[in-house]
Design brief:
CATH topology of the largest domain: Chitinase A, domain 3
Strand content: 15-25%
Structural class: alpha+beta
CATH architecture of the largest domain: Roll
Low-confidence stretches: 15-19
Number of domains: 3
Number of helices: 9
Distance between the termini: 55 Å
Order of helices and strands: HEEHHHHEHHEEHEEH
Number of strands: 7
Radius of gyration: 34 Å
Largest sheet: 5 strands, antiparallel
Mean pLDDT: 85
């Protein structure tokens, strides 16, 4: 059946006011396999601008698929087309996966407590190794023409709360880049990668350092650091641990579900073992 014939048939069916009557009409045939209008209508989206185009495309794709399947069955060895078991197993897998997801979405508790995270971290602490250097401290990149740099220098290494507020206010006004949370572990590379290439050999051992290029001044203050290969602090591992615990809890939840279903099947005498 060519495109012109298909289009003619579809126009006949859809331009008329008798769509419901024509639902069981045959649209195409390929080697004794038939395509009915009902199948196409079931696949059609509710909101569609051009239903004739959709049906024409659907029909053409169906014809091509049936031709390929027919010739595959003719030309492949019998062993190569015995897919029933594989198809059934795949169907089972899809059904079980969809059911698991439904249960997890509606019945699974996704909460993980801080104590659970801390206990897991302490138990497996030696397995959490840093893959890069980290530090606690501050860094600021500031325009060379910024005012009151002497005052900035005094504020930069201060831990006084009032000074910290002043430093934050100053950086908001004049800094190109800044990181000021001195209590949080941060990857050293985040700062280093913002530097001109000639300054990227900085060492973590530097406590307080500043330098400049033609446009900016760079300030780095390090209050603590850990090098690659050392134990990673819990702050950087919290999300990873939470995901591990969630996955463990999901497995427990689904295993318990299967056990409950099994026991329920036995209690209802729906399972018979011979």
């Amino acid at each position: 059946m060519n495109k012109i014939l298909i289009s003619s048939c579809l126009i006949l069916f859809f331009v008329s006011s008798c769509v419901e009557k024509n639902k069981d009409r045959k649209i195409a045939s390929v080697y004794k396999k038939d395509l009915f209008l009902t199948e196409i209508l079931n696949a059609m989206p509710e909101q569609i601008e051009d239903s004739i185009f959709f049906i024409e495309e659907y029909t053409n794709k169906w014809i091509r698929k049936q031709l390929l399947v027919h010739h595959a069955e003719l030309n492949l060895d019998k062993q190569e087309i015995l897919f029933d078991n594989q198809i059934e197993e795949y169907r089972y897998s899809l059904l079980i996966y969809a059911y698991h997801q439904q249960l997890l979405n509606h019945n699974f508790d996704t909460s993980v407590t801080n104590n659970e995270i801390l206990n897991y971290y302490n138990r497996y602490k030696q397995e959490f190794k840093l893959n890069q250097d980290i530090f606690k401290g501050r860094f600021v990149i500031i325009d060379k023409l910024a005012p009151n740099l002497d005052k900035f220098n005094n504020l930069f290494t201060s831990n006084n709360t009032e000074s910290t507020y002043e430093l934050f206010d100053y950086c908001q006004q004049f800094a190109k880049e800044y990181y000021l949370d001195i209590d949080i572990w941060q990857y050293f590379s985040i700062f280093v990668n913002k530097l001109p290439i000639q300054y990227r050999d900085l060492k973590l051992e530097y406590k307080n350092i500043s330098f400049e290029d033609s446009n900016y001044r760079y300030f780095l203050y390090i209050s603590d650091y850990k090098k690659k290969g050392n134990v990673s602090p819990i702050y950087l591992e919290r999300d990873k641990i939470r995901n591990v615990l969630l996955n463990k809890n999901k497995i427990k939840f689904l295993n318990k579900l299967e056990d409950d279903l099994y026991q329920n099947g036995l209690d209802l005498e729906k399972i018979k073992i011979y």
